[in-house]
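Slide 14.
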Amino acid sequence: MKRKLSLFVSVYMLLSYLLIVSPSALFAKESSGVNVVSSEAGITIKHEYINGKHQVSGTIKNGKKVKGDWMIGIGPKDSEAFEDFLYTKKNVTNLSLSYTFDKALEPGEYVAFVKFTGMVDGKLYDEKDGKTNALFASVPVTSKSADNPTNPVLTIKHEDGGGKLKVSATIKQAEKVKGTWLIGVGSKDTEAIEGFRYSKKNATDLSVSYTFDKHLKPGEYIAFAKFKGIVDGKKSALSASILVTIKSPDNPVKPVLTAEYKDVNGKHKVSGTIKQAKKVKGTWLIGIGSKNAKAVEGFQYIKENATALSLSHTFDNQLKAGEYVAFVKFVGVVDEKVYGENNALFASTPVVIKSVENPVKPVLTMKHQYVNGKHKVNATIKQAKKVKGTWLIGIGSKNAKAIEGFQYIKENATALSLSHTFDKQLKAGEYVAFVKFVGVVDEKVYGENNALFASTPVVIKSVENPVKPVLTMKHQYVNGKHKVSATIKQAKKVKGAWLIGIGSKNAKVIEGFQYIKENATALSLSHTFDKQLKAGQYIAFVQFIGVVDGKVYEKNNPLSSSTSFEVKPIPNTSIAGGVLPKTATNYISAIGGGVVLLLVGTGILLYRRGASRSR
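Slide 15: predicted structure.
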């Protein structure tokens, strides 16, 4: 019992000494690489080498409320940081802060340090007149030379793109990646402000950038980028951050709303544009009214939840002669500032409508044409701008009643002109081609009683000797082959089957000498037969069965033509020792003839000698 009491007294005295005599001994060192200064508030430091980057973190201990300036750096000794390894942040209220330096250190021994000057729980920690009670901690850093290839490094940058914040990140010293990108802007490295967070999954890009549409209020922020995935076949988690400072403008530009009015083909177009602004969302009101900007009935247009900086609308209705005001109004948010009914953006411009002494009335004109045996009717509504209704085009008797097959109707038409071609033929006689329009023309209604109407006479003359199609053909023997050509003359349009053949006199086609072409639309056709014909008399013939200029030619009355030709026998070449032809000379007759000629010549000679002696 005495031993236990003695042990208790010893422990009590030791704790009393530590708490009363030397309380700072409790805070001398928390762990390896951590220094603590001040008995009331202390600061700890932590250095980590993550994916080739140096991350330094500082935390204020024994404090609840702080406000002051942080300094984080790495250098050759305490409080002396390299230019690229120094980070400061002022007016910080966080108890901890960390920063990652993207650049690499050359091999050697260094010191990473954190310093805080400011208020901690109402007490000032500062540096003045060479004296300091600033919270400070440091830890040694050893940078070793890399035996293996350089590790990947994530870099980050930001820029102002027309009032919008653009954050870009790139993985350097890497060739192939696949994973998830995260880009954000916030008060801390990993806490993004609402509307300032962007992620991209299954990304294979070595770099990514994103522009945030929202605007940040003036102040200091951290833009950060993270990549988690596979880098060159190795799992990696890379991160980087950068300070973003948004300054408040000295003379903020206010948005200005402008209004414009135009008379476009008798219609009233009003346009509004919000200038000196970047982003809007709200309700547009466009109208035309009296001078107090009260819209006339039928001259008001509203568009809600609009995000465009400009808007225009065209009113189709007509205004009476007089003076008006075209106005534009916008209620909503412009560059994060609210404009309500009391301070809405507003603009107006005067409009003067002059009276028309002699208003122009619409006129319906038409024209009939006979084109390639077809009847084409064209119609146009002149002195009008806008129409909607039903067109009726027809050809009929003089009372404008359409003949069957000669009527065309088009409903809900908005074109000012229309044409139609009738394929059928008219018998000889007198007709009327007419056009009718029932509907709305420039907001005026034209019904059956006052419809727009136009007509023109059509005279179809009888043809005493109507031209009939004629099928002609020709046979040629070209290079030992038989070529047959055919043409349908006095015709314009055909569709049917051609038959070309060679046969005997009864037109029976010889095997191998027949050619057929169906669904033909050409007016002529030719074909060459490669086979040879024996000597004799033949007939080359052509037939066409189908439609020619709207008339049907069937098997009973096809267009046909034929021509006869002869194939002569080919003479045989003579052979030695063979039978002589009939034209060969008879040698016996020739010898007899020669003897007779010799005797006659001898008799004449003797006669002449006897006569010369008698003299």
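Speaker note: The longest strand covers residues 108-120.
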